[in-house]
Amino acid sequence: DASMAEPTTPFQVQLRPISRRQTQGDYGTNQGSSASLAPAEYHSPTGSTHEIRLQSLRETVVKERLVAYCEDLAEWFTVLFHMEITAESFGHDIEDGVLLLRLARFIEVGDKDKKTRGFASHGAGKRPCPPAPMDYTEKPTTAFHKRDNVSRFIAWVRQLGVDEAVIFEADDLVGHKNEKNVLYSLMEMARVQGGVEPPRLIQLERLMDSGQLKLGSEAEERSAIARIKDCLRAMEYPDERVERTAPGRYEVADFGELNIAILRNHVLVRLQNSWDTLQHYIMTHGNRPKKAPSATPAPRSSLSATTPMTRTVTSAATTTTTT
Description:
Blueprint: H1 48-81, H2 90-94, H3 98-112, H4 143-160, H5 170-174, H6 179-192, H7 200-210, H8 218-234, E1 242-246, E2 249-252, E3 257-263, E4 266-270, E5 275-277, H9 278-285, H10 308-312
Antiparallel strand pairs: 1-2, 2-3, 3-4, 4-5
């Protein structure tokens, strides 16, 4: 029964808890991954078991980044459209393009509204918002009409100013051919638009860039540092030094200062135009470990999970636990 098949797409994937005692083969597989993508310093002549564990761990932490993006976008759509959208249902909810085109209209109206306040226009909207497509199929029942709707949205995103390198194609969404591209593209669209309040990760970026990020309580800061150390420990990294240097900024081992956010159950590192999980960042940027790192329990994919960051982005003036 196809309905009983294990989910394999980023929109549907549920990260399963992983024990440090598990052996290779217990983490599931990702057909889109390749062992050649793993950093060379993590390969070892100790045997195939070692490399299988490393590849399995890499696939797990890469999935976590996609889940973090998907959760953030699903919550964003839930707030905007006043309907229940989860990370698990997100791909199905947007695949016909209707919500995407409604979002384009929201952004267009908000961009023209001089009363727009808060995070929406802060640091975004570098160019005038193009008119949102109005001529589309509101209740598409065929793949052709779904692709037509999505193509209209993509054309609008291109006019909005999203970098061509991250714009997805209609079949990436409708045909579920490359849902990772869809997530990255939607997050970049949220980053450049200035008409509506963006997802939490983009709000955090704007707070960081404006210097408005505030410290949380002492207990919250201790918890954040403990979470960062947990990631280092899970990767069996030889250096576990962590020191907060500014709100949302930490000196981590020998990686230097990193902008870090704890969003729901994910510890994320801000890169130039994206976010990565701290564990994947350690895996791709760290020094060669003495032995293969063990897997750490993966976070649950849950929009209802409460973390200090949940309260961080409700208002620019709110004291936060920014991590």
